Automatic annotation (TrEMBL):
Recorded catalytic activity of this chain's protein: O-phospho-L-tyrosyl-[protein] + H2O = L-tyrosyl-[protein] + phosphate
Similarity annotation: Belongs to the metallo-dependent hydrolases superfamily. CpsB/CapC family.
Keyword Hydrolase tagged: yes
Keywords: Hydrolase
Domain of life the protein comes from: Bacteria
PANTHER family per UniProt: TYROSINE-PROTEIN PHOSPHATASE YWQE
UniProt name for this protein: protein-tyrosine-phosphatase
Pfam families listed in its UniProt record: CpsB_CapC (PF19567)
InterPro entries: Caps_polysacc_synth_CpsB/CapC, Pol/histidinol_Pase-like
Length: 250
């Protein structure tokens, strides 16, 4: 075998590598309760997605429906009732995987008041609360919201920071958030170029700087998982696994 053939074979072997997420243990960001946000639309689709996630070696799922005042007016009751129905269907289909539910909160005035008033939140685990923002502009109340969360003894997790263009272009803000120990959670799909080249470059920067605390699939539908199966092509697939992540402790 020539040297060129050797490298071609090695490259092909990497590209054909099966996706294995057993190292991750827990996927803590997804949208799998049917019909309550922009994720899974039906129970049949939810079951199919969970079967695929289990097939990647995951042991636990914490699904996180959106709570967004203008579009998805979910409550802890709506989410937990949906979780109960999903668990029943998984049992009926003899699919054994631990599944819990939290929420992905959109930072706006409504959420700010909810936190300030001490309303019940659905955390990922203990006091960890997943939050998101719009992708283009920094919310004026971003730092105030984090302050209120911390004041009420919550630890904020910023969902997919690599997708926020305002954060890409504001290194000081990025470091300010990290200095106050806001946890960064990245989407695995960002490493595949699924969102954009800019997002891919930024997420690789966060990994190089060892700024990532949690990872998730952010699974919404089968298209997400089809793209996710190309993850082993990324040179950061292995590098990510060597970070000090919190997923396995959830």
């Amino acid at each position: 075998m020539g040297i060129v053939d050797f490298f071609r074979k090695s490259k092909a072997s990497t590209y054909n590598q099966k996706l294995d997420l057993a190292w991750m243990h827990t996927d803590m960001h997804s949208h799998l309760i049917p019909g309550i946000d922009d994720g899974s639309k039906t129970m049949v689709q939810s079951i199919d997605l969970i079967k695929r996630l289990k097939g990647y070696g995951l042991k636990k799922i914490i699904t996180t429906p959106h709570i967004m005042w203008e579009f998805y007016k979910n409550t802890p009751e709506i989410i937990l009732n949906g979780l109960d129905e999903l668990r029943k269907e998984l049992a009926a289909n003899e699919i054994e995987i631990e599944i819990n539910a939290a929420a992905e909160y959109y930072i706006d005035e409504f959420f700010f008041e909810k936190v300030k008033n001490g309303d019940q939140l659905l955390p990922i685990s203990e006091n960890l609360v997943l939050v998101e923002t719009g992708f283009i502009n920094k919310p004026a109340i971003l730092l105030d919201t984090f302050f209120e969360l911390e004041l009420h003894h919550y630890k904020p997790i910023l969902a997919h920071p690599e997708r926020y263009f305002y954060l890409m272009n504001d290194k000081k803000l990025k470091h300010d958030l990290l200095d106050r120990e806001v946890y960064f959670q990245i989407n695995l799909l960002s490493l595949t170029g699924f969102y954009s080249k800019e997002v891919k470059v930024f997420v690789e920067e966060l990994i190089d700087e060892q700024r990532v605390k949690l990872v998730g699939t952010d699974c919404h539908n089968n298209r997400y998982l089809d793209a996710l199966e190309t993850l082993p092509k990324s040179k950061y697939y292995q590098k990510l696994q060597h970070l000090d992540l919190l997923n396995s402790s959830l």
